[in-house]
Amino acid sequence: MADPILEFRNINTHYGAVHILKDVNLAIYPGEMVCLLGGNASGKSTTLKTLLGMVTPTSGEVVLDGEVVNDKPTSYRVERGITMVPENRRLFKRLSVLENLQLGAYLREDKQGIESDLERIYRMFPRVKERLSQKAGTLSGGEQQMVAMGRALMAQPRVLLMDEPSMGLAPALVQTNFELIQQIHEEGIAIFMVEQNANMALSLADRGWVLQTGRVVLDDTAESLLANPDLRKSYLGDAGGH
Amino acid sequence: MTTAVKAKGSKKTGVDKFLTLLRFLLIGAIAIGLIAFVWQQIDPNNPFARWRNPDAQPLTAEQIKGLVVTGLSQGAMYGLIALGYSMVYGVLGFINFAHGEVFMLGAFTGFVTSNKLADAGLWEGGAFIPSVIMTAVLAALIATGAAVLMERVAYRPLRGSPRLIPLITSIGVSFFIQNAVILLFGPGAKGYPPNPEWLQKKRRFDLLGDAFAFEVEGTKLLVLVVASFSMAGLWYFVERTKTGKAMRAVAEDKEIASLMGINVNKTIVTTFAVGGAMAGIAGILWGLLFRSVIATTGFLPGIKAFTAAVVGGVGNLGGAMAGGVSLGTAEALAPLMLLEPLGVAGPTQLRDAVAFLLLILVLLVKPTGLFGERLSSEDRA
Fold first, then answer.
1. Do A35 and A2 form a contact (C-beta atoms < 8 A)?
2. Nearest-CA distance A109 → chain B (Å)
3. Rounded-to-integer distance, Cα A58 and Cα A81, Å
4. For chain B, what is the mean pLDDT?
5. pLDDT digit string (tens) for A42-83?
6. pTM of the predicted model, to two decimals?
7. Which of B73, B110, B87 is nearest to B244 (CA)?
8. Which of A94, A102, A133 is the best residue to mutate to test the B interface, defined by the most B CB atoms within 10 Å of its own CB?
9. Residues carrying CATH 3.40.50.300, chain A
């Protein structure tokens, strides 16, 4: 297997005195799809924020392309191909759809590349093209999800982190949303997804981790996770992880 | 705030009743004043005008046009200062009460530079325009520097603390700058050198026919032209450039802005710098128009520009400009067109009262300002 793009080596994080992530090790390889499962307050969002440098670990190493990036800012990591579709999409609601997409490419200087990526996103999400001059806050939830994905793709990511992509979407849209994620994945972009809808996520993913109160308790292929009786009980049953 | 309470259908309290009464009183007074004014213009000898003041005269068209021009030029300066309040509020969510001092520093830079240039014989002579440009650039630079320094030294260390703390700090910064200026220049008023003859002269414009012809003093015209260009430049910067886009993104969501790769600290500094430059330009315009500056010059225009920002809807740039112009115009017109017909004595001395009554009126009727959006509960302090 190729070298991982992103790695956690014995990561520990704290919010004040609260110990969130405990000796977490993980690795994301080029082009794969991984999902991270876990209950509330298990440290899923902290994992994503630590990968991006929005949270600084108290010990351990965040490694990007073999380089320790603990003290590098978010922009450094975004420039090197790591970006995120945040929870609840978090579009700039008062900016136009086009401006949102352009901000995704904020660190890029190649005007032509940006133009052709915009075209690519319009092909992927024809609905977005119709709404370019509208304020992002006026779009429906499904459309906002498309813009959020488009905005992330504008950064030309190699690894796309997704924080609860189906949260807050109408049930009918959840399926479409996963199809879009699949489509992005097929372009060769590695996807690291935190998702409550464990069944759906695992059926697409190659591998999965389960996080429990800050520790990785399971690390396996998606197939065997789907078959794991303990996991079925806690995440895949009727409770659905909510 | 009252509207939000009422929306939940709770019972009207005594305070609500009082506020409603206040709304009716203010709006009623404005309506009666306007009616009395129009009546007086149509029939100067109407019984109401005679009863209130036997010597009352209607305003001539020339007088009204003059008031409008005065109001607009004054308002343009308020608008320029208000932009700084509004932008900083948009990005950091607090009112920088030291912003009026940034304006005052601009006016003081203008005082020093213009007098140096006058001593060199350049001010009133042939090189007036280059001199003014140089003075304005220097004033803008000093004001920008002051605003940036203020952010770095006083506000950045307080980032993340409760909002009341930077607010109180800004009042402290304001006192500090005022006293530093007194230490440097003394407490007295400082004069600008006289403007050249051709600038002071009144000019007549009758582009729209004789009925709309009006005369403007050259200095006021200069203020209006420079202010309009500055505002247009700022609008272009914020709406059309990449940095402006980053600024609006930071104003909305700092965490996601940094996820886009935007340097949030740098963007906040830019915001202070641009607001400072606008205040600096307003300062030099103020100096050219009133030709006098004192360490406390920043106080009243600063508070009024803050009022203008609230009137327009704080955080909204178009609103800040519109608020400034409305405030300046209201200040100029209301004394003679509302207060005098109502029989208020010495109305022209009540300009400041008019400005703050306008603030109260806007807060009573539309608390989010003329162009403001309702702030969500998480946006609110």
1. no
2. 11
3. 24
4. 89
5. 889 899 999 999 999 999 999 999 999 999 999 999 999 999
6. 0.88
7. B87
8. A94
9. 1-81+158-242
A1-81+158-242 CATH pick, 3.30.70.1350, 3.40.50.300, 3.40.605.10, 3.40.190.10: 3.40.50.300
DSSP string over B199-220: HHSEEEE-TT-GGG-EEEEHHH
**What is residue B127's predicted lDDT score, i.e. its pLDDT?**
85
Nearest to A196 by CA among A242, A238, A228, A142: A242
Name every chain A residue with its beta carbon within 8 A of the beta carbon of B250: none
pLDDT at res. B376: 41
**Interface contact flag, A83 B242, Cβ < 8 Å:** no
Residue-wise pLDDT for B260-270, tens only, equals: 999 999 999 99
Other CB atoms within a 10 A radius of the CB of residue A198 amount to 24
Between B242, B249, B263, which is nearest A92 by CB? B249
Cβ atoms of residues B327 and B355 within 8 Å:
yes
Mutate to test the interface with A, among B255, B260, B371 (most CBs of A within 10 A): B260
Q: Note the Cα B250 to chain centre separation in Å.
A: 24
Of the candidates B245, B256, B259, the beta carbon closest to that of A99 is on: B245
pLDDT, mean of residues B353-369: 90
Q: Which residues of B224-261 are buried (b: 16+ CB within 10 A; e: fewer)?
A: bebbeebbeebeeebeeeeebbbbbbbbbbbebbbbbb
CA distance B134 to B130: 6
Nearest CA in chain A to B259: A74
Q: How many CA atoms lie within 13 A of B297 on its CB side?
A: 32
pLDDT given for residue B342 in this prediction: 83
A90 in contact with B at a CB cutoff of 8 Å? yes
Domain ranges of chain B: 64-332
- How does DSSP classify residue A31? T
Whether the CB of B256 is below 8 Å from some CB of chain A: the reply is yes
Nearest to B79 by CA among B323, B332, B252: B323
Chain A residues close to B245, C-beta within 8 Å: 95, 99, 102-103
CA distance B16 to B22: 10
Q: Which H/E stretch holds residue A191?
A: strand A190-194
Quick one: pLDDT at residue B290? Answer: 94
Sign of CA dihedral B353, B357, B358, B360: positive
Residues of A in contact with B258 (CB under 8 A): 54, 73-75
- pLDDT for B380 beyond 50: no
B64-332 — its CATH code?
1.10.3470
Read off the tokens for B30: 């404005």
